Amino acid sequence: MQSKKWWQNSVIYQIYPKSFKDTNHDGIGDINGVIEKLDYLKELGIDVIWLNPVFCSPMDDNGYDISDYMDIAPEYGTMNDMDRLIAEAKKREISIIMDLVLNHTSDEHPWFIESRKSKDNKKRDWYIWRDPKTDGSAPNNWRSKFGGSAWEYDERSGQYYLHVFSKKQPDLNWDNPEVREALYEMIHFWLKKGIAGFRLDAITFIKKSDMMDDFPSDSSDGLSPVDIGTLNQPGLLEHLHELKKKAFNQDIFTVAEAPGVLARDLPDYVGDNGVFDMLFEFGHVDIDLDKDGKWYKPLDRPLSGLKKVISESQEVINQIGWSPLYIENHDLPRSINHFLGQHVDGPIPAKLLATFYMLLKGTPFIYQGQELGMTNVNFPSIEYYNDIASIGQYKQAVEEGYSEEEALKTIWRRSRDNGRTPMHWDNGNNAGFSEHEPWLSINPNYQTINVQNNLTDSNSVFHYYRQLIQLRKNNEVLLHGSYDNLMPDDKDLWTYTRSLGNEKIIVILNFSDKTVPLHLPSPININETPLLIGNYSAENNEPMETNLLRPFEARVFQLKSEN
Ligand code: NOJ
Predict the structure, then answer these.
(1) Where is the Glycosyl hydrolase family 13 catalytic domain (predicted)?
(2) Is the CB of 331 under 6 A from ligand 1?
């Protein structure tokens, strides 16, 4: 049994700095904007901020292409601003965790600039260089995550370098001990500044396969997903254990973005013998991914997939480790449209989703704007999009024969820019985000969905999140109680309990847009049981009927001991 840790009863708020709040009027959010809004975050009740990358970067992938790990991108501010953010957050008992991008750097990082100078440069082996095939083409047919070959040719030295992501994100060679030592040194630099831990980016990609052969292609471009030779390769865990020993050897918190880890392998990654405190799993956010893992298709009834995947993960967490709970981040569409449909909006469905995931076992992450019920945006053409992945997907879809209209529709549903449009602070100019035209267009619905309206309306999504956070903090059973899925086959309802000793809480969720009957399995009885929280407020309430759940209704009860 794992001992209890501070981060288990924390709530983490994720900030995408570029879109959070601009204070120097250049249309780009900044660190001072985060400082300005700390009191807002305190009011929400969060304990930790996860700050997406703020390091120097040419911003090809919005900061995930780092050109200096130990300095701040000028558009976000200075190191003094960062130090002030850490100190100001601390005054409010908020800790900061930062993004750690260890798989790749920018091609403008001095290490890569050196490495590409010549074949015999001292830093040549810091990245992954290979000779062309005899016909001059790329060493193999791997397709990068953002589309196109994962290899980029370098004229000067006549070799190719590997990039799992964009060609401006060359992959580091983790088999070189000097690379690893340089990264550990950088990690200690940040820890000395008093940050509380890290979110590790794409960490299961750091070890590459020794065999660099072609793989069977899955498409007309002749390429094959880069994952096959770069994700979860043998030898990965050895690198991770060294990272833990040499860089995470103090009381910090780590959460890893670790695609490709199977539930049965979780004990190698989390828990007392694992490497990280938590791992982001992808099953629930990828339920709309087709069987080949290539295109996202709309799902008629996402509930059954969602329930299955989450329940399986919660059952593992009942036994071992701990889980980050999340339904949104900077790589995902807005949850309300992702899980409930492209045309759904409004506070009730937003609160349903909040209830569903915030009361599971684990540490909840709230992505900026999620606490307002922000929705997807449908930009009129691909030119409005900034995200490198969306632009790559659009291009690939059109090349594969989809019409521009169909390709755009996929982007509407799945673009990472859905979650990256600027934060809505009020209904004024540029949604109160900036006095300058923002780097990415604002979602037109900011007039109604914004912080100002949410703060003044006591029935708002924001206030509901606050209440959920308090409910978690005041009920040990919601922190450490075990999870049970009560009606796994129900097509509309998700009903689960959390139990600890004699305490039991039941969470009842109607994922459909219709009123549906509720028949709880005996002996559970909620008659005359007071509601702990529900998403239909007193005002829009016809009296609650025990055996009927209204569209998207969520109700939570503390069960009496006989249940
Ligand atoms: C995962 C990050 O979340 C994403 O935004 C980024 O594009 C890739 N890793 C590459 O660093």
Answers:
(1) 14-420
(2) yes
Look at domain 482-558 and name its CATH class: mainly beta
Task: Give the pLDDT of residue 349.
Answer: 97
Residues of the chain with pLDDT under 70: 1-3, 538-544, 561-563
436 contacts 24 by C-beta, under 8 angstroms: no
Distance CA 41, CA 28 (A): 20
The C-alpha atoms of residue 449 and residue 256 are separated, in whole angstroms, by 31
Pairwise CA distance, residues 332 & 280, whole Å: 13
- What pLDDT is attached to residue 146? 93
DSSP state letters, 438-502:
PSSPPPGGGGTSSHHHHHH-TTSHHHHHHHHHHHHHH-HHHHHPEEEES-TT-SSEEEEEEEETT
In the chain, where the domains are located: 6-105+176-466, 110-162, 482-558
Mutate to test the pocket of ligand 1, among 101, 331, 386 (most ligand atoms within 8 A of CB): 331
User: Please, are residues 380 and 28 in contact by the beta-carbon 8 Å criterion?
Assistant: no
Residue among 130, 102, 106, 26 at smallest CA distance from 422: 26
Q: Which residues of 489-519 are buried (b: 16+ CB within 10 A; e: fewer)?
A: ebebbbbbbbbeeeebbbbbbbbbbeebebe
> What's the pTM?
0.97
Q: Which CATH class is domain 6-105+176-466?
A: alpha beta
Nearest Cα to Cα of residue 266 among 207, 326, 314, 331: 314
The secondary element (H helix, E strand) that includes residue 302 is: helix 302-319
| Cβ 205 under 6 angstroms from ligand 1 | no
Q: What is the pLDDT of residue 1?
A: 47
For domain 110-162, the CATH class is alpha beta
Distance 202 CA to ligand 1 centre (A): 7
**Ligand 1 pocket, 64 CB below 6 A?**
yes
